[in-house]
Amino acid sequence: MRHYKHHEIDFEKWDTCINKAYNSLVYAQSWYLNIVSPGWEALILDDYKAVMPLPRKKKYGIAYLVQPIVTQQLGVFSEQKIGADILQQFVDNIPYKSYCLQLNSENVLEKSRQLPNYELDLKQNYDELFQTFSHNTQRNIAKIEKSNIVITEMFAPHEFLDLYCSTTKNYSEPDKNIVSQLICTGFERKKISLYGAYSGENTLIASLCILHSKNRLIYWLPISNDEGKKTMAMFAIVNSIIRRYARRSIIFDFEGSQIDGVARFYKGFGARLHPYCQIRRLRPRIIFDR
To answer: How far is CA 5 from the centre of its chain?
Structure first.
């Protein structure tokens, strides 16, 4: 196992490893990491047999690792499943004293903090999936279907970005420049799909950016304006996507939340809890801005 600086990484071999990994996630592809964590480094076992991205930052002359924004899970990736001993070896070889990282759900470490994620397996037909929705979710979908709101796939990233940048959010939003780069680059690479809810006046009132990750659809960036929130348009968008991809070997990944109301929205679609681990060491407040 060796620590590679950014310029030492063979990105072609890296992406091949990520794409073939049994626990592959788009967050770990080189194009994604280059945007959210410029200069990222890595731990690599043998000739890219297993890899772990190291999202490095520096503050007050101190180098440390921190989970990048809009990057829920990273950790160790490999084509073959690795045992707890190899996983622990990666963690033990992290070359920085201070870190806070989120591993993927296949990287299970005892005594680590667990964070919630919610997933829905779409292998059943739509009617069967609909029966697993909560009564509240079913009722909201039925109400919206009787309205004049239209759900459609969008083919202009700037339309999503205009809504995203102009809408007031009640949470700490990620850097708009990074979001713009991810949206545009991901769209070009066919790693992103955009869905919109339009009012009777053909006005975009809500939109959802879906991130494609192997056999996984990630509920990545949702946004609703006041009318979209009032009409609960996001219920209709998610329902439309589930209907479209039903009966396929695909996981709808809601990305999880520790906020009760948001988690309730996810669980309302029948999504099940699939936690992942967070590891941390020496996190002085003077350098950890996140």
So the answer is: 25
- What integer pLDDT is reported at residue 173 of this predicted model? 64
Predicted local distance difference test score (pLDDT) of residue 256? 78
DSSP state of 258: S
Among 53-57, 143-147, 212-216, 286-290, the minimum mean pLDDT is found in 286-290
74, 105, 129, 160 from 239: Cα distances, Å: 28, 25, 10, 19
How far apart are alpha carbons 25 and 140 in whole angstroms? 32
Please, are residues 266 and 274 in contact by the beta-carbon 8 Å criterion? Answer: no
Alpha helices, H only, the chain:
11-20, 30-36, 84-92, 126-131, 135-145, 157-166, 176-188, 226-231, 233-245, 260-267
- Beta-bridge mates of residue 140: none
Global pTM value: 0.92
CB atoms within 10 A of CB 133: 21
Q: How confident is the model at residue 68 (pLDDT cuts 50, 70, 90)?
A: very high
